[in-house]
Design goal:
By secondary structure, the chain is α+β, with helices and mostly antiparallel strands. It is built from six helices and five strands; from the N terminus they run E-H-H-E-E-E-H-E-H-H-H. It is globular. It comes from Bos mutus.
């Protein structure tokens, strides 16, 4: 496991056997985050909804005023193996605000490659986002999950999350594209 690094480096092993979880963009390229984002869209059967370019994704997360933050889990290659570290998952989050609860953190994406699921990597990412939330004075960590992804729902519940659709009847809505332009009168 690499040395501890800076405070926000999160350089600890995501599955306790030769890997690390780090705050992007500590590495030399952003390719991992972009590729994983596309894999997540395919997994969710929503790849036709990906409209953002890699350049825009990079600019929005790592420009002067970032819109989001990203944690990346990678597995280190064994000593003597020629390939470098392998990105196996990520968590993309941003800060929001509740007039009832104050500061919040929203975990927009959490993804672990299929061959690495069940090893605790997703849990480690969620726990690290919770740690960031507490360090920033947030009172809640929020996320959404598709209704067919029972495995993810079971994990979130096992970690202590409350299903707001069941408990409070909340439904999520969005305005986008033409509907948003019409709403704004543009």
């Amino acid at each position: 496991v690499p040395d501890v690094g800076e405070q926000d480096g999160f350089r600890d092993d995501p599955r306790s056997q030769g890997g690390r979880l780090w705050k992007y963009p500590e590495a030399d390229s952003g390719e991992g985050c972009w590729l994983e984002t596309r894999e997540l869209a395919e997994y969710e059967k929503l790849s036709d909804q990906v409209k953002i370019s890699e350049e825009a994704l990079r600019a929005d997360g790592f420009g002067e005023t970032p819109f989001y933050h990203c944690l990346v889990a990678e597995i280190l290659s064994a000593p003597g193996e020629p390939q470098g570290p392998c990105v196996v998952g990520y968590g993309l989050y941003y800060f929001s605000y509740s007039t009832w609860k104050g500061r919040n953190i929203y975990l927009e994406d959490i993804y672990v490659k299929p061959e690495y699921r069940g090893q605790g990597i997703g849990s480690k990412i969620i726990k690290k986002v919770a740690e960031v939330a507490l360090d920033k004075g947030c009172s809640q960590l929020r996320l959404a999950v598709l209704d067919w992804n029972k495995r993810a729902m079971d994990l979130y519940k096992a970690l202590g999350a409350q299903d707001l659709t069941e408990a409070e009847g909340w439904h999520c809505f969005r305005f986008e594209g033409e509907a948003m332009r019409e709403l704004a009168g543009k």
